[in-house]
Fold this protein.
Amino acid sequence: MLNNWLRIAFINYKKNWLSTIINLFGLTIGLTGFMLILMHWNDEESFERWNPKKDQIYYFQTYNKKENSYGNNISIPMANRAKEVIPGVEDYVLFKSSGMGFKITTKNKTFYQEGGMNVSDNFFEFFPFKLVDGNYKNALKDGGVIALSTTAAKNLFGKTNVAGESLKFNNKNFIVTAVYELPKENSQIKPEFLLKPVEPMKSDENQWGNFSYGCFFMLKKDVNLDQIRQKFIKDIFEYRASLDVAEAGVTIQQYMDLYGPNDSVLTPLDEIKLHAKASWFGPPDFKTLMILFTLSVLIVILSAINFINLKTAQASQRAKEIGVRKAIGSTKTNLILQFLLETFIICFASYLLSLALTELLLPSFNKFYDKEMKMTDWHIFFYSFAMVIAVTVISGLIPAMYLSNFKAIETLKGNFARSKNGIWLRNGILTLQLIISSFFIIGGLIVNQQVKYMMNKDLGYSGKQIMMINFSEENPKPWLKYERLKNEMRKIQGVTDISYGEAVPGNGRSSSSNMDFRDKSIEGQHGSMDFNYLKFINVKLKKGRWLDPNLASDTINNVLVNEAFVRKFGWKDDEALKNEVRPGFDNKPYHIVGVVNDFNIRGLKTEIEPIIFFHYRETDWKRFDVYNIQLKIDPNDIDGTVKRLKAYWQNNVEQGYPFDYYFLDQKFAKTFEKYQKQQTLFTILNAMVLMVALLGLFALSSLMIEQKLKDVAIRKTLGASDKTLIFGLTKQFLWITLIAVIISIPISYYLMNEWLKDFAYRIDMPVLPFVLSLVVLLLLTFSVVSFKAYKATKVNLVKYLKYE
């Protein structure tokens, strides 16, 4: 019986070779896209799974109700108190300054090592990297010790057994206490060397408001996270507020409403990459991943729709076969199993082809996402094969049930071919396919328009020919270094202007604190700078005046603010110039002397934040945060100027350090990269969808028009013109296309509007993509179907009428 089924299957594959190829091609493309996106998802979900303590380690984040924002920082006193008073908390580890680099000197060489991290001394209890040399006990206990990765140890000493060796950087001597091997598995936490910032941590022990550390908490097994969260609110946040309410003159609840945090989020260690609300290690983007995965599944569904449509369209060709088999005793179950087997053979062949195609495309996909994925995860094979089974059942069962219900007597009499059975099923499935195609066209056009809008939007500043050079971490008085370099580097040919700014577009290094005015408080970014910085980057003054180096008060307590700062307090520009604010980073009032136009620092996805601008000497601790020098370059000799600057820097400023620089406009352009990649992927998926849909439409229209060739011959004999015949054969498909687009419009509008909500600066929902979707699909449908219809008008009349 099985042998007979297989022979019938291959006879039908050969007979309907076009639809067989289209089914194979469509399913192969769909499964390949599904596999690649699934591999990407699995890779993103695999971060930190290497850690044997992952089930107990949680990443701490705060929530500020007033700002509706999440933070990724904590203060040392808050972490200490959590361990002391919350029963479910066993321990915590603090970290900061991820990615720092130093020029490190050993007995035999000097090497610039990047990837360092400041941590508290119990780091290895949370992250038990494989120990290669030394001992983890007291490895980070004081400020004179350092732990190295095997890579860093080889870079510095040429070997890994270096515990007890000494090295020097930042004018301090250190002893290597441990050498560890970083995990080969995916991890966002891969420090090349580890230090404990003893002095800074000691000075921050009682600073409840100094939220400058990231934190992981070790919780007891099977702990109730909601209870822990409630404890944080009551025993940490409210307690912290109670310490300051007397001085602030407000109640505990009022204090929390003004300054926050109001709540906390604890994200499991192995979910940080995709599911954290805010992260030190890069912004999570689970939503985009889900969109891509959904789109890849839709392509598979389209392929399944093609299969169902083509199988039901071929029904008339197999009607007599089914009638004969029923007449000789074949059961409905046998017929269904036979059709399912035919479907499975096509699906399995597509699965094998998709495995080969995925392997072929994987290097390019890895390059696109900067990954090193390999087809070694059994989940990929399991879930993709499960998809094959699902497609087999869905796309095989519907036509199988439909075909197996034919009545033997009717089919043997030949009545089936002239009946209208199956028309509603085919039309309904074709409509669904065109709805999906319409959504992809609309979505692709809207994504393109949004990305184009972002690329062309006026950012409120100009970063052209502005070169930023970062200082090394080894600067005891960095502001003096900047002032010296400012005078010396002016003499270099090609340098036209110099300045410094903390809030650099595209960099995102600026810090923030509360800004108080009477009984109101907002969260504002700090923008310490040189006097000329805002004019240097072509920001416009809206009201008041610039800071003036000739006025002593402009280095004491005078500041500029942006429009967002004024709006947040509900002032008008003139009112702002009459007011003083008290920043949380200082104990004196600051007087606003000017309002500048808003300009984008972090990108266009988030709104422009309130920023307060002041001279770096105005606040004591900000002088120590001067970290860059920015130079405006002569556009006529950019390459030559960069070479001269590099030579000067490496010979006279930071010998042994890399020349760490970038141009502001290029750096900000990187904030668009993620959306440009989304645009590229959407375009590729769009092309795949249209290709699968149009091939399916072509094959379906071919089969349906072939069934009408006798009618065409009769009408042509009676005098119908080719034009009338073509229109008659195509109008049904055009009506289906029109209905499909109309149905897709509200669906596409809702989904794309939700996507646009992720952007603070976005286009208004355009009308053109919806119109173009209708026009494009109508034209494509007409082109595909009319081609086959035209061929149908050239039929041999004698062939179809000789028996009439």
Q: What stands out?
A: The chain has a mean pLDDT of 84. The radius of gyration is 34 Å. DSSP finds 27 helices and 22 strands in the chain. Residues 332-369 form the longest helix (38 residues).
